[in-house]
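Worked Example 4.2. Read the sequence first, then its structure tokens.
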Amino acid sequence: METISMNVRSVGLLLLTAIFPCVAQAADVSCKTAECHTSIGGTQNMHEPVKEGDCSGCHKQTNPLHPLKGAKSFAMTAQGAALCYQCHDTFGKKKNVHPPVKDGECAYCHKPHGGAGRFLLEGGDDQTALCMGCHDAADFKKKVRHGPVAVGSCSRCHNPHESDEKKLLRGPVWESCLKCHADFLKTLQESPFIHPPVKKGPCTSCHAPHSSENGQLLKKKMPDICISCHPGVEKKLRMKLVHKPLQETGGCGNCHSSHFSKAKGLLSGDDMSVCLECHATDKLGKPPLKNIKKEIEGKKYLHGPLELGECRACHDPHGSDNFRLLKGSYPSDLYVAYKDGIYGVCLSCHEKNLLRFPETTIYTKFRNGNRNLHYVHVVNRKGRTCRVCHEPHASTGEKLISKEGVQFGDWKIPINFMLTPTGGSCSPGCHRPFAYDREKPEDYRSEEKGQK
């Protein structure tokens, strides 16, 4: 009788196996038989329970027959995030929680059995497709992309579960950036001058964190991004003459460091060195730039501001309504008679009454007795501008009067200027030799009457 009963059970088991191939009645039969769940575990990174063949950690059998036609014979051991929290640490305790985590939908991002990428993520280590499934892709596809964005390493900067920082950042913006830009921090600490947005604000004040149409991930192109804080520069951009570097690729960054510097004004070097980076050649531009480096090289006498290395004392580095980007008025023509206001740039440092009076004993030493010879040259007759006699930058002679002569078209006019303790003399290419003396004036009255 017992033998008959065993035979009946064996026949029944054979019938069940024939109808339900995956029925797990034997210990060595797994869920991944050739007939059943063959796709599970066929990925590069498997969930640890799957790797160990322990399906019961997440699934519990609710019906002795499996598979059960038209119904389920297994259920999850817990629902939503509670299932994962049976093994993993719980999330949701920090200030900002990723919405799928908050909703307990771990499977939105993670594959429960295995994924091509680490952490059971789908799509390999490139997280772009995964994150763009919810986030707007437009912000990540612009011409210039942040390195982590370019390779799909979103979680390099963002915590995918929760954070006490905005945007789920792994730390404050400053700290997050410096984790990669370590060389930046070292140089910053050694620099005496720091751009206020770098010192006080997040990097994202100027830079887009994901992608941008502008170089260096700037939110706006230069100089637009700079003038949003420096409105004075915007005013200069509307003037008659604008310094060319501002209008070229690089904008403000052609002369200034955007973050920190060892020089005032965040210049990339001292004032003169920065200017001579361009003004050391006669090949750039149309018409070509004057080669100021060559002009001042080896000269004994430098104009006072240049002696201090301050080109900005006379020239505006951004823009000006005046000739040669000068900070004050000065004629562009060679001969212009003095009127109040037209020699402003020179008279802002030199005696402001230098050209106002035909006779003086205090406003200039260039006089014959009381006769103001600056007045004679600049106010009377043809009105010679300062540069007819004086070099604006450097000279081999005193008073910036060049021994080689001052440029007059393609000719250098010889001045032949000589000083004495109480006066001097000159014999230039524009008139015969004349002398002057402050204490014992030369008498040229009869000669002047004859010329009238």
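Now turn to a second chain, presented in exactly the same format:
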Amino acid sequence: MTQFFQSSARGVLLSAALLAASVTSSYAQLGIGRPVGRQIVDGIVAKVDNQIVLRSDLENLYAQEQARAEGKPLPPDLRCRILQSLALNKLLLAKAETDSVVVEDSQVKNELDRRMAYFVQQIGSEKKLEEYYNKPIKQLKDELRIQVKDQLVQQKMQDEIAGKVSVTPREVRQFYNRIPKDSLPYYSTEVEVGQIIKIAKTNSKAKQATQAKLNDLRARILAGEDFATLAKQFSQDPGSAVEGGYLGFFKRRELVPEYEAAALRLEPGQLSPVVESQFGFHLIQLIERKGDSFSTRHILLKPETGTADATEAAQELAKLRRRIMADSVTFAKAAKDNSDDKTSGGNGGLIANRTDGSSYLPLDKLDPAIFFTIDTMKVGSITPPLPYRTDDGKDAVRILWLKSNNPPHQANITDDYQKLAAAALEEKKNKALDEWFLKNRGTVYLEVDPEYTGCNLLNSSL
């Protein structure tokens, strides 16, 4: 139990951590190119059925652990631990293949687009991202696609194995009582912060200007210009613009209703009129139908918001704030019913900790915009409406609520029940995975490079 709240190599890798935005290394987050440290002569170090583990995968993960250690000594068996986790992931993929566990192409595309959009936003622009990796966006996505698909399949397999595992309050308390008192972590100041976000509404003039621009592009295409070329030049959908607006195949009910309805009214090659959805305005071209699936390309334009739109959102939030402060509605209910951020809105407005999913946020790791706002606030107070920009670049306004401010302390069952419950659940899920590995490790073919025969791969014990 001395590893309380510390992820083992297996836990980090089996949880498909590359899907999360909280992974420390940007290389690991994106999952492509630019390995940490020296360049590695590649080769296969292990095979699990038809799945392979490359030496470069092993060494790059080892280098990332070295970087995180900041000069501190690493466990002597760390390479074995990493290789074992990689092999276990390959076992998940091998069994997924034999058990016909698959993920939809649309899910892969959505995750790929989400991850790419996140990194474009973090680095500043597509051009900067391409310069950083010295590769065009399309090539980066092509290199990342297989890895994303594998991670989604691994996660689906884990969900089937341990997804229904839960813990009771009694199990949480038993878990806590097993932890040696000198192993309990010491937490720095943590806060709980709620938010209610209202996205600035687009005024009619901005909408009309956007529609007019798309109608002009439509006329140019009908006059003979290439749809894909114009999509690359004008579309504001970063995921598809680099591919000439091509979205690929989707089944019914996988795209927003307005887009799907317009696309399915078309014949192959035909252009839609301008279509509005929650994402903006689209010009759609149907490419092909295959049974219940269809493929399209589109040009997306988003109307610009202006000061008047943000003012209207701010006035709406100001009224809501007064109602909360007058106790006519709770912050949690106001967030659930009114916030345009459905993730925090569904959590009573509370911003989740991306590391453990709890509502407790370490003060020293807060977004600076939140930190400097709540730094002088009293618990229970609510800010006036503040300007805000959403992760996908939309102008918005929000109010912030400081629900709690917890001073530094050693973990205890009263103040840290959520964290303890999450750790207890993780332990129970790992036990379920261990049992699955023990049952299935003998059902696959395993070959290991002689250099690593002492690592005892696919043994459940780490």
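Notes for the reader: The longest helix spans residues 137-162. Residues 153 and 382 are 42 Å apart (CA to CA).
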